[in-house]
Fold this protein.
Amino acid sequence: MEKTFFMIKPDAVERGIVGEIIHRIERRGYQIEELNLLTLDKSRLDQHYAHIVDRPFYPSTVDYMTEGPSVIGVLSGPDVVEGWRHMMGATNPGEAVAGTIRGDFATAPVGDHIRNVVHGSDSIASAQREIGIWFN
């Protein structure tokens, strides 16, 4: 069974839409294998976002991701990496179609940062790496 890492970001937790997102995951038939509520730390964020840590917008990303608790977890199911990414919708909320999580819940960018409520691994290799970072 394929696995992927997912995150419900601080803006979604603050707005009280975690239950709706979890409901959509369960309704789709994915299994939640791990689930934690925690405030993310910079050290693991640096590992998670290693590909953008040198970008000028990265400090604002860290500020956003550490402003409050997030829900992190592991999903399993057939083709869950691609399926979860489809459920999330486009990274940019302005491009996310209605019916996707980002299309229904993400807000307009604030400064340099896109507040797009959820994250999901972009490949099986990324899923394995990200699961290893957040769930030893």
About this structure: The mean pLDDT is 94. The chain is about 40% helix and 20% strand.
